[in-house]
């Protein structure tokens, strides 16, 4: 968008460049973001300094980026109802995700394999946009914007994500599953399973010279409190009462709960198990919270020669839901790897995710290829974008790219090391007249030998692909140092930004020392047609 409105603060020059929420600036300069990857090589070659005559966002002949990346914020979106894999192993519709939620994505450190990792949702955005329906060879249906990039599994960074195309595979890692309702029979099964796994039952008559006492109670002591809290809640729902306390033993202390009387014994072993799926879902959840573990596979510990009845119940429960297993000397080991572990987790709904996360977090992606067989255009729909800390997430079981272009190349934003930043020493070499063919080339572009009447060379553009006043600047202060270089060598500069960090006193004061050297152009983004009309009367509605 070319229309600009001017304003002023002190003696500094500012211009407002309104752009719409569909990122018109990005469309005009790098084709909906599709050219971002192709310029990365050029960015590295020029150390973040490059000629802009080949059509970037400014007509000035030389552009400088604070870091080697793209800050255009291209929006790639999914429709409402898309299932996002959360950090507790459950799934949530994308429209219900909020900033601060933790989801599951992946990361790659150095030359190691890509593996699952927790990822924080930093931003959420919604808009209306044309969408497509993707059908895969497995029969699954996915709906997203046409340009939404999906993980390809390729090693090369520039081919890591690609938009959907017939014949191209999507990378499937997990089957999305919804939580089932917690019923009364489920609660009875969970209570029984937790008692049989970690409970101590006392049903004994104690006699002394004065009297006899029949002691009836059930005690569960364990280090994890979520199963105990659930136990207390479920017992209360059954109109009974459990008592919380501390169990002291030689090795230390553990949180515990107790039940007393005939009701305790009935729940523990006197009442016969119910023969329905809800009861057995609950029972498996209870026994897993008590005796379950995972290390690449899922196991439920129990010695068949000590507790043959409980050991057989584990096999019976797993068989009921078609889980395959292997009988071991001290446990029942479930077969099937990640997909079966997650099916068990979603079906039974135990409380202890920490036992299951070892099968996921830190483990290799190992996705299954699911080829796209057809793509159909559907028209407009409400779509949603997520920005996450790992720059990716899992949507409907498929690995998807972060919906906003990452500020730094993969793996560097977390540590915010200056590795991906443009060298200020290199820039000073251009401004100061340092010897060398590369420096001379850039000085020629800036017309250092044809300075104007005031002795200034051609201005440089700061902020073409990377925003010089983004969140990375808040942490590293590169732009503030660059301002000092411009003042030192009397180099005019035009900044281009979508942020407001330049209005902080530290930056305003730095530029006001030589205000004639600096010009700040900033963009205002809005999806509201009425606001757009006020900003730019010539811009067509975006809705």
Mean pLDDT: 81
Helix amount: 25-40%
Poorly predicted ranges (pLDDT <50, ≥5 residues)?
Answer: 1-10, 17-46, 53-58, 404-419, 538-543
- Helices, by number, come to 14
Give the overall shape. elongated
Strand content: 25-35%
State Rg: 31 Å
Can you give a write-up of this model?
The chain has 543 residues and is of the alpha+beta class. The chain folds into three domains: 5-72 and 415-535, no CATH class; 78-173 and 365-401, Hedgehog/Intein (Hint) domain (Endonuclease - Pi-scei, Chain A, domain 1, Beta Complex), CATH 2.170.16.10; 184-359, Homing endonucleases (Endonuclease I-creI, Roll). It contains 14 helices and 29 strands. A seven-stranded mixed β-sheet has the order 1-2-28-27-26-5-4. Strands 6, 9, 10, 11, 14 and 23 form a six-stranded antiparallel β-sheet that branches. Helix 9 crosses helix 10. The longest helix is centred in the middle third of the chain and has 15 residues, at 184-198. The model is unreliable at 1-10, 17-46, 53-58, 404-419 and 538-543 (pLDDT under 50).
């Amino acid at each position: 968008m070319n229309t600009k409105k001017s304003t002023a603060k002190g003696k500094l020059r500012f211009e407002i460049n309104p752009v719409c929420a569909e990122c018109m600036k990005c469309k005009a300069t790098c084709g909906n973001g599709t050219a971002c990857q192709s310029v990365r090589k050029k960015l590295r070659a020029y150390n973040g300094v490059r000629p802009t005559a080949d059509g970037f966002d400014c007509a000035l002949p030389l552009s400088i980026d604070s870091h080697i990346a793209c800050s255009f914020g291209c929006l790639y979106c999914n429709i409402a109802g898309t299932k996002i894999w959360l950090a507790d192993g459950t799934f949530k519709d994308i429209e219900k995700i909020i900033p601060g939620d933790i989801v599951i994505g992946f990361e790659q450190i150095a030359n190691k394999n890509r593996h699952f990792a927790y990822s924080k949702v930093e931003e959420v955005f919604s808009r209306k946009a044309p969408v497509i329906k993707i059908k895969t060879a497995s029969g699954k249906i996915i709906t997203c914007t046409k340009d939404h990039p999906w993980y390809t599994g390729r090693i090369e960074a520039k081919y890591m994500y690609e938009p959907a195309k017939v014949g191209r595979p999507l990378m499937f890692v997990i089957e999305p599953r919804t939580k089932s309702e917690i019923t009364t029979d489920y609660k009875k099964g969970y209570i029984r399973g937790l008692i049989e796994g970690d409970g101590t039952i006392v049903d004994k008559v104690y006699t002394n010279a004065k009297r006899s006492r029949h002691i009836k109670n059930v005690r569960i002591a364990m280090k994890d409190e979520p199963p105990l809290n659930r136990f207390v809640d479920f017992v209360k729902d059954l109109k009974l009462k459990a008592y919380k306390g501390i169990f002291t033993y030689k090795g230390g202390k553990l949180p515990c709960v107790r039940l007393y009387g005939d009701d305790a014994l009935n729940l523990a072993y006197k009442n016969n198990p119910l023969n329905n799926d809800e009861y057995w879902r609950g029972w498996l959840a209870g026994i897993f919270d008590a005796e379950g573990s995972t290390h690449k596979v899922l196991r439920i510990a129990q010695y068949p020669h000590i507790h043959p009845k409980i050991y057989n119940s584990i096999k019976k429960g797993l068989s009921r839901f078609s889980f395959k297993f292997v009988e071991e000397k001290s446990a029942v080991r479930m077969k099937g790897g990640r997909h079966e572990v997650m099916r068990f987790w979603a079906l039974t709904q135990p409380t202890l995710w920490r036992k299951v996360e070892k099968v996921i977090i830190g483990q290799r992606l190992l996705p299954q290829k699911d080829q796209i067989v057809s793509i159909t255009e559907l028209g407009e729909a409400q779509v949603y974008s997520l920005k996450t800390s790992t720059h990716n997430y899992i949507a409907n079981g498929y690995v998807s790219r972060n919906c906003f272009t990452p500020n730094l190349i993969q793996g560097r934003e977390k540590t915010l090391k200056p590795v991906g930043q443009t060298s200020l020493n290199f820039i000073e070499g251009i401004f100061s007249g340092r010897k060398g063919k590369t420096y001379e080339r850039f000085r020629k572009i800036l017309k250092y030998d044809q300075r104007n009447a005031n002795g200034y060379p051609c201005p440089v553009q700061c902020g073409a692909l990377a925003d010089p006043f983004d969140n990375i600047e808040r942490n590293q202060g590169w732009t503030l140092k660059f301002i000092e270089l411009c003042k030192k060598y009397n180099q005019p500069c035009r900044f281009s930004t979508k942020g407001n960090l330049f209005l902080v006193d530290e930056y305003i004061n730095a530029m006001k020392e030589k205000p004639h050297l600096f010009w700040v152009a900033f963009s205002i983004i809005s999806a509201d047609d009425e606001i757009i009309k006020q900003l730019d009367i010539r811009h067509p509605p975006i809705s």
